[in-house]
Amino acid sequence: MDDDRRTAYLTLIDIENNKAYSNLALNHHITISKPNSKALVRRLVYGVLENRTYLDYVIGHYLTDPLQKLNTSDRTVLRIGLYQLIFMDSIPSYAAVSETVNLAKHYCKGREGFINAVLRNYERSGKEIALPDRETNESEYLSVKYSYAKWIVELWLSEYESEFTEELLAAGNKTPELTIRPNLLKNSKKGLKKRLIEKGYEVSESHINNIALRVKGEDLIETNLYKDGMFTVQDESSMAAVDLLDPQPNEFVIDVCAAPGGKTMYIAERMENRGRILARDLYKKKLDILNREAARLGITIVESGTFDATKTDGELEASADRVLVDAPCSGLGVVRRKPEIKYKEWDGELEHLPEIQRQILAASSEYVKKGGMLLYSTCTINPAENQDVVRDFLKANNEFKEQESIQLFPSINDTDGFYICSMRRY
Length: 426
Description:
Helix content: 40-55%
Number of helices: 18
Structural class: alpha/beta
Strand content: 15-25%
Largest sheet: 7 strands, mixed
Number of strands: 11
Mean pLDDT: 95
Order of helices and strands: HHHHHHHHHHEHEEHEHEHEHEEHEHEHE
Low-confidence stretches: none
Strand order of the largest sheet: 7-6-5-8-9-11-10
Distance between the termini: 66 Å
Oligomer: single chain
């Protein structure tokens, strides 16, 4: 049995059954299974995740009984096989079918004949599967074509024009480039770029952040450069939040929803590791990750501790020069990195999130001293979690004035979807 496809299968099963994050599950199973081609494993996993609804739609056309239920193993193996047939021209059809059937023999015993028949029937059909009619049901059409939960499509259609919504859906299915930020406490952007190129990586400049680099190549975080704390992996949109916060050396900064710590570390580096940063989060395990990251990077000014951000710590009122509220959100701006978000079932969360975000923003605003800065950010493009939350806060707190706001879209900015708003206290 092919180790690459087996690793992809195990990763997808982990995501499906255990609701594991795709990036963490991938890294775990690649480490354990040691496949021949990590690139192929990643392509299969992310390809299946990004196109899951469409693949299931195709599978449905070859079920004798429309109500037939497939177990998770059958469906996962079929998705892997069909993804290769539909989207991977580099793999011959006979290889895609035979390797998928071999996978089925191990994980879907007794069902390999059925799986082989579905794949062969797809090949014989000429590979033409009609999508739902767009004129009669646009949300269904877009949901199947781009593989998103229907409620997400309907949400975006209610907020944006049809053409822009489709651009957003398409952008979410593109594989983002890996972006890193040099640790300026240890090296320069120019020096890091040179060392990466010498190691065979393809490196280009960011168009959003003046120190970020985009890198192509395998096993970047296995290099000594990473282990020695010379850089951090971070999207430009996340960097943009810290750039707008504009922390300065010797200031006191509070990051109220800090873990896993990417923004916290960038704040410390912008402060030249001088001053004080209080990094808080609800869960200690997440703060353990933050503390390990600080040690890797050589950052010493971060103090961490658990705290409920919806509450105000009275000992810190009017004490901070800058406060960052990177609020918990729906994550609809990062589907290109975490495609499993596209299939999240509607559970009413979006109805409750804005209220939690309002509570966190109001509680955290008490920490800002006069003349200080409050920054609110999310990794979503949902106005109810972004502009509406800030509008309500400013209406209720007239001592704060908006300074600048940014809404980044993957379809426009080639970054994660991110909302950022800076407010100053007068």
